[in-house]
Amino acid sequence: MAATVERPKPVLVPDSCKGCGRCIDACEHHCIEPGSDIDPVTGLVPVRIHLEHCTACGLCFDACPEPYALRPEFADAARASRPAPRATAIPAAEPIPDAIVELPPAEPLVIKGMYASAIGAILAGCRHFFGYPITPSTEGAELMARLLPRLDGQFVQAVSEVAAINMLYGAGSAGVRATTFTSSPGFSLMLEGLSYMMGARVPGVVVNVMRGGPGLGNIAPSQSDIKLACRGLGHGDSHAIVLAPATPQEMLELTMLAFDLAFKYRNPVIVLADAYLAQMTGRVTLPRTMVQPGVPSWAVAGDEAHRRNLITSIYLSETELEGENLRLLAKYARMVDEEPRADLFECGDAEILIVACNTPSRMAKGAVRTLRARGVKAGLFRPLTLWPFPIRALAPVLGRAREVVVVEASAAQLEDEMRLAISHANLATPPITRVNRLGGILPSHDEIVSCVVSGARAPALEATA
Amino acid sequence: MSVFYERFDRHDAGEGVKGRSTHYCPGCGHGLVHKYLADAVEDLGIQNRTVAISPVGCAVFLYYYVDAGNVQAAHGRAPAVALGEKLAHPSSIVISYQGDGDLASIGLAEILQAAQLGIPITVIFVNNAIYGMTGGQMAPTTLMGQRTTTSPEGRGRTMGAPLRMAELIAQLEGPVYVERVALYDNKQRVKAQRAIKKAIGLQVENRGFAMVEVLSECPLHLGLTPAEAERWVKERMLPVFPLGVKKDATATREIWPAWKTPIVDPAVVHAVIGGAAERVQRFCTRFPRELWGRDIALKLAGAGGDGAQTAAMIIARAAINEGFDATHIPSYGPESRGGTSYADVRVAEEEVLSPAAPRPHVLLAFNAPSLAKFGPLVADNGIAIYDSTVAPDPPRLAANVIGVPVPATAIATGLGRVTVKNIVALGALAGATRLFPTDTFLTAIRQALRDKPALLELNEQAFALGAKAVAATH
Ligand code: SF4
Ligand code: SF4
Ligand code: SF4
Question: Beta strands of B141-294 (E only): which ranges?
Answer without folding.
Answer: 177-182, 210-215, 244-248
